[in-house]
TrEMBL record:
Extent of the signal sequence: none
Location of the NADPH-dependent FMN reductase-like domain: 1-140
SUPFAM superfamilies, per database record: Flavoproteins
Name of the protein this chain belongs to: NADPH-dependent oxidoreductase
Record-linked InterPro entries: Flavoprotein-like_sf, FMN_Rdtase-like_dom, NAD(P)H-dep_reductase
Assigned protein family: Belongs to the azoreductase type 2 family.
Amino acid sequence: MKVMILTGSNRKEATSTKLAEHAAHFISQQGEKVTVFDLYKRPLPFYSPDEVYTEHEHLNELKQEMLAADAVILVTPEYHGSVSGVLKNAIDHLGQAHFNGKVVLSASSAGGAVGISSLLQLQAIVRNLHGINTPDWISIGGLQRKRFEVGYDGYEGGQEIEDRIHLVLEAFLNLARKIGRPAGAIQ
């Protein structure tokens, strides 16, 4: 199974990106193929329905990797109670063919306690693209974010959040394995 993790932050050392990398490491340890597409490292042009971006290297890579994925994880920082602009822009470049029938896990990192607003919005977007939302999501906030910051020193509670993240990732992988690749999907 191929898992695509799309992480959308414009910050170099974003905790949401560190969360995505942690998830990728865990998923690869479970024997699955995983790709992290970091929108900070591979920026995309602003979406416009009037434009065709056939020559844009990063956009072409994103579309190909999303089509090849069996399951998807969308990771965002929560900005002002919403999904990051760069992640929404990336999703706007994609279409139903990239999500249709695929299991999708939403994850967020928030400066406050949790990032629920962005997760609810991601799930609505996934439904509109005919993806299959997992019943759980991952949200880290407050002190939990320290686990994914540069210079992590093993603060109290770090193992608890890792255990929760791993539990959600296991459930996501199990669901994706049961549902399998959508019929007619590009291999």
